[in-house]
Amino acid sequence: MKINLSINGINKEFKTSPGDSLLKTLRSEGYFGVKHGCETGECGACTILLDGKLVNGCLTSAAQANGKSIETIEAVGEHPEQGWKSTDGLHPIQQSFVESGAIQCGFCTPGMVLVAKELLARNPDPTEEEVRDVLSGVLCRCTGYVKPVQAILHAAAVLRGEAQPGEMISGEIWSQLFTAPETDIPSDGDAPTAVRVLPKVVIVPETEKWKTVGKSEPKLDAVKLVQGKPAFTADIEKRDMLYAKVLYSPVAHANITEIDASKARALEGVAAVLTHKDIPRVVYSTAGQSDPIPGPLDMFSLDNKVRYVGDRVAFVAAETAEIAEQALKLIEVEYEELPAIIDLGDALDNEIKIHDEPEFVDFADSDASRNLAAEIRIDIGDVEAGFAEADHIFEGEYEVPKVQQAHIEPHVVVTYWDEDDRMVIRTSTQVPFHARRILAPVLGLPIKRIRVVKPRIGGGFGNKQEVLIEDVAGHLTIATGRPVLFEYTREEEFTASRARHPMRIKLKTGVKNDGTITANAMYALSNTGAYGCHALTVTGNTGHKAMAMYVGDGKYREKPNIQFNADIVYTNTMPAGAYRGYGVPQGYWPVERQMERIAHKLGLDPIEFRLKNALREGELQPFSTAWSEGREPSPETIETNGLEECVRQGKAAIGWDQKYSDENWQIVPDKPWLRKGVGVAMVMQGTAIPYLDMGGASIKMNDDGSFNVLVGATDLGTGSDTVLGQMAAEVLGVPLEDMLVYSSDTDFTPFDVGAYASSTTYISGAAVVKAAQQVAERIMVRAAMILNDKGEGLEVEPGEILLADRKATSLDGRSVSFNEIGHHSLHHSNQEQIMGIGSYVSPVAPPPFGAQFAEVTVDIETGAITVDKLVMAVDSGIIVNPVTASGQIEGGMVQALGYAVSEEMVYNEKGELREKDLRDYHIFHSHEMPEMETIFVETFEPSHPFGVKAVAEIPMDGVAPAVANAIMHASGADLSEIPATPERVWRALNIISLGNE
Amino acid sequence: MIKEYYRPETIEEALELLARETPLTRPMAGGTELNSPSNDQFDVVDLQSLGLDKIELKGSNIKIGAMATLQDLLSVSDLPSALSEAIHHEATYNLRQSATAAGTLVSATGRSAFATALLALDAQLVMMPNEEKLALGELLPLRSELLKGKLITEILIPGNVKLAYQYVSRSPADLPIVCVAVAAWSSGRTRIVLGGYGTAPIMVVDGKDENDVLSAVGHAYMQAEDEWASAEYRVEIAKTLTKRCLYLVK
After folding, report:
1. Whole-number pLDDT of residue A382
2. How far, in Å, CA of A279 to CA of A441, rounded?
3. A769: which residues sit within 8 A by CB, 6+ positions away?
């Protein structure tokens, strides 16, 4: 049918099918600022203005819009500097988003900007509540909404003429937020809008002399993302591009006895159908990790057996996605159903064997005959001796659920042959270099004939550390010779991607009467699902981080008794994989619940009890002596630990001393069924994997004194390009705007393991610093040459030159601009390319430490809980960029909040999943958020040139136990399992009332 | 999947299309349901040009055009605050711009906050042809049969009734596991509706007799067990929320 649309003021006639959505129509016309995040209207990534009303493009058909006018992000603002043409620049709303750190991955940003535009057009002075309500239709998984909400409020103030652009992260207010150590930080309850985006930072003296590191610079990619520029994987057009779809298994465990694709192949518009009969059988692992993969090789692109509901059966490429869908229905498959294992408790030594393929490759202690993907046995000291010396033994059993990363941009890849017949894989990945290496044998190509390009990523959170769908498009490009786009639907994300490992955990702790922990032993039964990707390393981390936190006191502190055993088992469910936190949140749930129970039982102050036993500066990370992801361990000493200051600051922010012991505070006037409580958890993570994680960087100087920084590090929305640029800029004495940071492309950028294990700022940052130092040396040599050639003073030695303010300055004050140096080096004399390369691998993984606090209200009649406030005070070493770093903490806390109260993937006895969309799988919206506060307690980590440690994963670790400890404080309900659903809390409350009877 | 799209200018044209035996033809309101992925194939009759989006105060009643959006409803002055809360609970801002009052009721499951509230208010529907009146409570269990070839044009709700809405969910904006709406008329008539379970909310009490109300509520959810909650839990919580609602409407 023919329709007329006015898009951004231009009338156009379109030919469309009656079922085509506006999302599809607009994207096919090149309006790539309209994003695909789901198909059912929950995420709002496809938000547009239709006759001035905010609607979701996915749930509005093009036919419905016939005759109407549409506004997309493409109509809002433009780059302020376009050569000789002057423009009005960005819209004030966009400017405010850029300045405030409201943009992380930027995938939901176009929708948010349009939301703000609609709101402010009819209500120039909205309250925060009104902003949050209007923003409720756009889901964000990165920011926790704090900064987008503040950005909109600030933009409103600017539009009203009451505020100036740029006030968000500059000026007086900025410096007031930094406080020296040992100073109590005032509460910011009445803080004006302009400062709410900035965290409090307890600074160390080293940072004071820096100009760029430590400053809240706007993200380098913010300007393009806020305009909805075509920066993401699917935002390209290729002639003759095909659309891929995958046929998935409807049963949990079966042999494919017959598969006939002839009818599908005969369908008009189908370019290829591939089954296990059509492609080579190459065993591999989808885990995007360094070689050798620390886990079993147990998967094939397509197999003659299916191992979970959602396992792959066949691939189709067709001229349209609709034809590909139709073709799937024409593939005839006969399944010989096999009995399945759904519950992880049934897996070990079951007569049902999930992996009986002869190609299975063991790593370390996997044993397919026992359904065992990996086994871990770690003994530090002697736990039995420790238990014998204890006055009390506490034992608990705990359970944590499978949860989804739920990045708003689904997995998406485009593959094509380039003009050299090399396979280009443009993909939304955290691990471009691992992807290239892992895909080479699977596709039958040498590594050198594959180029992986990582554009902007719309969030990953570990799920894109998986080489999950690149092979599908790659096989289909090989089969057809044509470009192929493969994009997951939201349902596929839930049924056919990866998730956090669910675990059943036993914890046994020995304690003396005075609260000294004498021994701590954990056993984790971990469910890897149908394939063993990340099986060993995720569960290893559960012990490695969570069980290292409390070593005991006195002599136990010197020689702790810790045991960590785990069995990681196969079941016929979707595989687990990497998810931010990587096993550690699973470990802190039992550890921090058990610490709370012990403190209660022994009448100890829960905070003092924890600090008495917590790991301290100068001590060995106990696990560093025993385990390193299946490699040789190497002892590591904790050089920096700001935990006690974190506790002090966090207590002040949550009002612990006023609330914890005040029974009156716990009561809500006129609502006798409500009780309030506060809870705490203390956490540590790691920073990269020692002797393994490596990042490379190269930097070259341009004519005008700007620099290209090429990094393999994979910015997936976190802002790593920006903080890497800040470190290079600091070394070279230029503002960040002179840094052109590019990541990542396996043809152009140096190697980097990728974005995982909280490594980028630390590892890739050190590589960037090394490269920048080389460049700085060459600049100094060149500057001395120029100054000496001018002969206007004493001879200058390169070592005496200072680099600052885009100039090289000698001790006697003569200077050469970088512009002059750039031109001189490339054109004028003794020409050379000033450049540097660096790579870095660390012998240590210095842990960040943090204290997390929660305040909750419990309905003691229904079990419903409301989380009112979350606080995290964290020692992540030096904070390179407070706004982006606090965005990491805020976003992480909200994901962790979902883990605590609402997120869960539940299978029925047939292995079918309950949650297949973002309605049933509930992640937090803007209008239901608790108040959140982030405090950074800086320490200077000596192993890094700028003293940094990790920030990305640690906020995931302690929210769930802090919330549950607050629930216990409020109501007595003592939970062993998350999420803390109303019924679980209600049952825990019933146990108490039964006990009282 | 939508095969053909029609946008009639008159109700008669719309009814003519909807009366066809084949192909399967569905009325399209905001499209938030029919534009979702589906394996069914059907034609749609888009109702946007029929002028059905007006909201009028008619005496003490509110007359809601079938095509009025949930957001339109929120702008009605003196809308009972509990109804406003239920609408906010039903859908986020973007969806409220498209989702219509009638479309939301027609596609509601038991977990619909809006349908629960409107059932408590004893909403009456006007259907074409013949301006036939039907109570929402009669429609909900038999939607596919009663709506065949018909078109909802108006929804009538009383404006002078006290309404309370209470729910329990995993987080404030999550779908309800149990929700209760109670409407109280000045005559003493009280309607209690339970939601959060099954294919539609259910009316448990409609009358002036306050005796045994809670046992009726408990009885109604005796079998209300699904993958989201046990019946035991729902029974207890439905009673608790009913008590709170009754207190609020007093």
Report:
1. 98
2. 12
3. A727, A728, A731, A838, A945, A946
Instruction: Tell me how close the Cα of A133 comes to any Cα of chain B, in angstroms.
Output: 7
- Report the C-alpha gap between A34 and A111 in whole angstroms: 8
Q: Average per-residue pLDDT in chain A?
A: 95
| pLDDT reported for residue A171 | 47
What's the gap in Å between the CA of B4 and the closest CA on chain A?
A: 6
Do B72 and B140 belong to one domain?
yes
Region for B135 from its dihedrals, namely left if φ exceeds 0, alpha if ψ lies in -120 to 50, beta otherwise: beta
Reading the block at residue A542, the tokens are 């559960």
pLDDT band at A193 (very low <50, low <70, confident <90, very high): very low
Closest Cβ opposite residue B48 in set A64, A489, A902? A64
Q: Do A862 and B237 touch (CB under 8 A)?
A: yes
List the strands of the sheet with B178-184, edge to edge: B162-168, B178-184, B190-195, B202-207
Give how many domains chain A has, as a whole number: 6
Q: What is the CATH number of the domain that holds B169?
A: 3.30.390.50
Name which of A455, A456, A422 is nearest A439 in CA terms. Answer: A422
B186 and B209 housed in the same domain: yes
Identity of the residue in B7, B170, B240 whose CB atom sits nearest the CB atom of A861? B240
A333/A327 Cα distance (integer angstroms): 13
Answer yes or no: do A902 and B35 touch at CB < 8 A.
Answer: no
pLDDT above 80: residue A125:
yes
What is the pTM for the complete model shown?
0.97
Q: What is the CATH number of the domain that holds A833?
A: 3.30.365.10
Using an 8 Å CB-CB cutoff, list chain B residues near A64. 5, 28, 31, 46, 48
Residues A832 and A866 in one domain: no
Do A388 and A511 have their domain in common? yes
Structural domain boundaries enclosing A882: 639-686+846-997
Residues B213 and B135 in one domain: no
pLDDT, averaged in runs of 10, over chain B (250 residues)? 96 96 95 93 97 93 97 94 98 98 98 98 96 97 94 95 98 98 97 98 93 94 97 98 96
Residue with tokens 């301290």: A616
- Evaluate if residue A194 carries a pLDDT over 50: no
Instruction: Write the CB contacts of A592 (distance below 8 Å, at least 6 apart in sequence).
Output: A681, A682, A683, A958, A961, A962, A965
**A861 within domain boundaries:** yes
pLDDT (tens digit per residue) in B105-126: 999 999 999 999 999 999 999 9
A127 CA to chain B: closest CA distance, Å? 16
Domain count of the fold of chain B: 3
How far away is chain B from the Cα of A313, in angstroms, using its nearest Cα? 20
Query: ipTM score of the complex?
Result: 0.97
User: Domain containing B21: what range?
Assistant: 2-46
Among residues B158, B177, B204, which one ends one of the domains?
B158
Q: Are A300 and A439 found together in one domain?
A: yes
CB contact under 8 A, A982 and B169: yes
> Position of tokens 């799209």?
B5
φ, ψ (nearest 5 deg) of residue A435: -60, -45
Domain edge (last residue) among B158, B187, B214: B158
- Same domain, yes or no: A526 and A488: no
Residues of A in contact with B248 (CB under 8 A): none
